[in-house]
Design goal:
39% of the residues lie in helices and 21% in strands. It has 3 helices and 3 strands, in the order ααβαββ. The protein has a 3-stranded antiparallel β-sheet, covered by helices on one side.
């Protein structure tokens, strides 16, 4: 038969022991932190539509009845060539699939896109 060790012989973590011994106080503190957090979130200033300017333009061109290769040669490459003439341009990338082309033009941060 094995003897159970005394409570004083066991290792204890003082923070856990305190929380178990004072469960009501810990519960009340947790509820107060939750309520103060909700109150702070409600008082935080927010804008419904913040002014965020992303210097990126997406050009979507549908051209039905054509393969991806025709879309690339007839639509994507000529539009890319015209967009690359802009001086504030950072990068241009395109993706051509059957009946559709997407061209993404990314500009430097100091340009204002209207």
């Amino acid at each position: 038969m094995t003897d159970k060790p005394n409570k004083s012989e066991l290792r204890q973590f003082s923070l856990s022991s305190f929380a178990v011994d004072n469960a009501t106080s810990v519960f009340l503190i947790a509820i107060m932190i939750l309520l103060f957090g909700i109150q702070s979130y409600d008082k935080m200033p927010k804008e419904q539509y913040p002014d965020a300017s992303l210097p990126t333009i997406y050009v979507n061109t549908p051209y039905f009845g054509n393969s991806a290769e025709e879309i690339e040669n007839l639509i994507s490459k000529p539009i890319e060539k015209e967009i690359e003439a802009i001086s504030e341009l950072k990068t241009v990338s395109s993706n051509s699939v059957q009946d559709f082309s997407v061209i993404i033009a990314e500009f430097t941060n100091d340009i204002e896109i209207t």
